[in-house]
Design brief:
The structure is a single chain. The protein has 246 residues and is an alpha+beta fold. It folds into two domains: 109 residues, Zincin-like, CATH 3.30.2010; 126 residues, no CATH class. The protein has a four-stranded mixed β-sheet, sandwiched between helices. Strand 3 and strand 4 form a beta hairpin. Helix 2 packs parallel to helix 4. The mean pLDDT is 85. Bound molecules: zinc ion. The site of zinc ion has 4 residues, from helix 4 and helix 7.
Length: 246
């Protein structure tokens, strides 16, 4: 089982597991903790359906999730895939936002989907896991490395320690790159929402409300953003959106 290619097998298993969770979690696991109810018929539902139809996005259901029970973070997400895509909206989102703002939030999520961000994010995660296992395999199978530390033979435990030492900087670099890509995706999805709803205004006011309700730091240090932020600070997103108003 060990062998130099064991890492490939570990990688395949880890990827299968995480893909499984990604697709299974919204459909099977979330309903255990939250309730999903179909959005009642009314102006909001009609506005969301009209928008989806306009941009040619198949939406097989619109649900309200009692997200406020757990957290005020997050606002909307898709579940299911292919033709069975459904959008789940947090009840807090519906409570605190008007119809135009909620349509803008949907438009932002549709933007992620149409621009292929979801697939890119998955691919990146797959690559990242591969790097982890590959590095681990190098450390487990390298007699030279153990010799360099004055050890007569390879040891799994020492290999793990070496791996963790080296992996920390590698992981930092990977996460900085991943965050930069994710922030670029947010700007793209915002721009998509502005363009397809015809105005950046609704997205801007939704962002204002969302950042107020999550108590987001409005002006984080740029280095903090660079290291840690998968989303650009709301203020910068608002500025980028405002630049679209002519
Ligand atoms: Zn987003």
């Amino acid at each position: 089982m060990a062998g130099p290619y064991a890492w490939l097998l570990c990688w395949a298993v880890a990827v299968a597991f995480s893909l499984g969770l990604t697709y299974v979690a919204p459909a099977w696991i979330l309903p255990l903790f939250n309730s999903f109810t179909p959005l009642e018929d009314g102006p909001l539902r009609r506005a969301l359906e009209t928008y989806a139809r306009k941009v040619g996005f198949r939406l097989s259901g619109i649900f309200v999730m009692d997200g406020s029970r757990r957290s005020t973070k997050g606002n909307a997400f898709f579940t299911g895939f292919g033709r069975r895509k459904r959008i789940a909206l947090f009840d807090t989102l519906i409570k605190e936002h008007d119809t135009d703002e909620i349509v803008a939030v949907l438009a932002h999520e549709v933007g992620h989907s149409k621009r292929g961000h979801i697939k890119q994010r998955l691919a990146l995660g797959v690559i990242r896991t591969g790097v982890v296992f590959y590095l681990m395999s190098l450390f487990m199978n390298s007699p030279d490395l153990f010799a360099a530390f004055g050890m007569a033979h390879t040891s799994i435990y020492a290999g793990l320690v070496f791996f963790i030492l080296l992996y920390t900087p590698v992981s930092l670099v990977l996460s900085v790159i991943g965050n930069a890509i994710s922030r670029a995706h947010e700007y793209e999805a915002d721009a998509y929402a502005a363009r397809t709803t015809g105005t950046p205004q609704a997205m801007i006011s939704a962002l204002k409300k969302l950042s107020a309700s999550t108590l987001a730091n409005l002006t984080p240090h740029p280095l903090t953003v660079w290291l840690d932020y998968g989303h650009p600070p709301a203020l910068q997103r608002i500025r980028a959106l405002s630049a679209l108003i002519r």
